């Protein structure tokens, strides 16, 4: 066990409240591609426009069929299972903390985590017709993006699209989770998407900050940076 992992283990044991800030990298070991890394969705796809536009509110409204095709092809992995990172975070946060995630795959919840804020919503709750409000199972959405009784466009869950605002309840909850923590652990996120990336400004002065990421995020205020595969790190906690 490396000195860095030993130090992280000790920080967790001594802490009173641990807040995990997680992104797409946490779910890569479960078989879900991330967005911005070398093999991520935003780097490997062939798009007529930007992937950000494909996942935007404007695209949903103006080109619903294209939006549906892109979303189903790139975002839905209903058979994915939680990995050791999800499981260990669930164990720790259920005892003393919170998980604030950018991920829309619900794997933290599937791992048994009870204290989770899905900052950008998820793909599985409240899938509904924008015309009449009727709700649908995700399995229906995987086959069809329209409600044919009224030709309404179906929206995929509570997911926050580009051009939309984060749910204020999630935003305030995330800010509180950061301000309540005496240890914050950032895992699998580039910290480039706002307002998620701005959550660290709510960290208290004496709160320890740990970054676990294969690639250097250059988070200058971090007290500990572990440049290692998160699976390897969390298997040893």
TrEMBL record:
Domain of life: Bacteria
Classification via PROSITE patterns: SIRTUIN
Entry keyword NAD: yes
Keyword set includes Transferase: yes
Class of the enzyme per the UniProt entry, highest EC level: transferase
One Gene Ontology term of the molecular function aspect: histone deacetylase activity, NAD-dependent
Domain Deacetylase sirtuin-type: 1-237
Assigned EC number: 2.3.1.286
Keywords tagged on the record: NAD, Transferase
Name of the protein in its database record: protein acetyllysine N-acetyltransferase
Organism: Companilactobacillus tucceti DSM 20183
């Amino acid at each position: 066990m490396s000195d860095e992992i030993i130090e992280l283990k000790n920080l967790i044991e001594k802490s009173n409240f641990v807040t995990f800030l997680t992104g797409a990298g946490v779910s890569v070991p479960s078989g879900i591609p991330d967005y911005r890394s070398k093999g991520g969705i935003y780097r490997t796809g062939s798009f007529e426009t930007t992937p950000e536009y494909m996942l935007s509110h404007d695209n949903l409204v103006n080109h619903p069929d294209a939006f549906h095709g892109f979303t189903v092809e790139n975002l839905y992995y209903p058979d994915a299972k939680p990995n050791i990172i999800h499981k260990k975070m669930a164990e720790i946060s259920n005892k003393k903390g919170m998980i604030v995630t950018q991920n829309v795959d619900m794997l933290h919840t599937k791992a048994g985590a009870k204290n989770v804020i899905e900052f950008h919503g998820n793909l599985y709750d409240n899938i509904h017709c924008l015309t009449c409000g009727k709700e649908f199972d995700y399995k229906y959405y995987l086959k069809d993006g329209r409600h044919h009784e009224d030709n309404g466009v179906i929206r995929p869950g509570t997911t926050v699209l580009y051009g939309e605002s984060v749910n204020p309840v999630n935003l305030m909850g995330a800010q509180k989770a950061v301000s309540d923590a005496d240890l914050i652990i950032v895992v699998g996120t580039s910290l480039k998407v706002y307002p998620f990336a701005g959550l660290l400004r709510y960290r208290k002065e004496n709160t320890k900050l740990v970054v676990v990421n294969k690639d250097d995020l250059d988070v200058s205020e971090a007290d500990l940076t572990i440049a290692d595969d998160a699976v390897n790190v969390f298997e040893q906690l």
